[in-house]
């Protein structure tokens, strides 16, 4: 509490109050926002580090709030998780993204299909409809499971028991890729990786950030090198996020990472931007 002058002490922090009011306001506004179509998705390209080609994109949800403007997911995903709205919201994101992937595939015809990465929150993992909803969405859009990658954070799977892993295993058996997001931030036992139905490791942005200095911290280099070689020995692909400079991209390529994502290539944007990037790429 801050002294407000004299012997009066203000116990409440007015900014914290405003934040709490906004949180409450946003939470109660969420269901109507979904009905009114106030959410939209931006796509950020995933680029192959070896040849620079666009391989797909990650779907990132935003809320165009009538009063507050565009809100990022960090502002409302935790609220949606808390109220359970994340289940229908997540289903909506998946449906939109899969349809978008179909649209990209149609445009490129015979080219390699662009893949779509969609984030799954832990609440969606425990929701019994996950597998069936995903199957239905893919079928309705006519998209093969191989075009979809579901991203689950490392922390959501730490200590996961078999019940939690079962739906992910079913999806993986169908051909859906499962990526372990924010890898390296949790404390998961690396040996534990074998037990998880994942095929992609998404190295957390903190590793990419440590590649900013030149020369990079030798310990960080060793850690990334170790993670990449372990991942590859387990047949996992490595994606790096938060690549902001060409130097980082080059360093991570040399370290053997497979795919990258970050502002250096493109910020998240409307789906048409991916068309342009992939077309530029396809024509040289
Ligand atoms: P994430 O899955 O780790 O997504 C990557 C975040 O890094 C995104 O933030 C992206 O805009 C940002 N980013 C990308 N490239 C760069 C870069 O070069 N530098 C920096 N500094 N940042 C970069 P965003 O869009 O704000 O999303 C934040 C988080 O919200 C995501 O983190 C994800 O956990 C969650 N999220 C987003 N969309 C969804 C969704 O549809 N469902 C669920 N459950 N969570 C979502
Ligand atoms: Ca992600
Ligand atoms: Ca991530
Ligand atoms: Ca993150």
TrEMBL record:
Ranges where the EAL domain occurs: 23-282
Signal sequence segment: none
Name used for this protein in its record: EAL domain-containing protein
Annotated source species: Streptomyces lasalocidi
């Amino acid at each position: 509490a801050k002294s407000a002058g004299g012997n009066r002490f203000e116990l409440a922090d007015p900014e914290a109050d405003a934040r709490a009011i906004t949180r409450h306001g946003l939470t109660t506004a969420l269901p109507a926002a979904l009905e009114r179509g106030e959410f939209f998705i931006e796509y950020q390209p995933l680029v192959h580090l070896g040849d620079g080609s666009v391989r797909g994109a990650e779907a990132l949800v935003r809320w165009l709030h009538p009063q507050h403007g565009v809100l990022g997911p960090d502002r409302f995903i935790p609220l949606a998780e808390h109220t359970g709205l994340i289940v229908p919201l997540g289903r909506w994101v998946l449906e939109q993204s899969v349809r978008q992937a179909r649209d990209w595939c149609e445009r490129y015809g015979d080219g390699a299909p662009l893949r779509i990465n969609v984030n799954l929150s832990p609440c969606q993992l425990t929701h019994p409809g996950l597998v069936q909803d995903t199957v239905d969405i893919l079928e309705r859009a006519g998209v093969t499971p191989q075009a979809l990658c579901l991203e689950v954070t490392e922390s959501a799977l730490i200590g996961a028991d078999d019940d939690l892993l079962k739906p992910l295993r079913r999806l993986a058996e169908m051909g859906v890729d499962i990526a372990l997001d924010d890898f390296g931030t949790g404390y998961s036992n690396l040996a534990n990786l074998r037990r998880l139905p994942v095929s992609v490791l998404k190295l957390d942005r903190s590793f990419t950030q440590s590649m900013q200095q030149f020369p990079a911290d030798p310990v960080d280099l060793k850690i990334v090198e170790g993670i990449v070689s372990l991942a590859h020995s387990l047949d996992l692909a490595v994606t790096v996020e938060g690549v902001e400079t060409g130097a980082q991209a080059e360093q991570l390529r040399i370290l053997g990472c497979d795919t990258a994502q970050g502002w250096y290539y493109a910020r998240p944007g409307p789906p048409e931007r991916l068309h342009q990037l992939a077309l530029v790429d396809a024509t040289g």
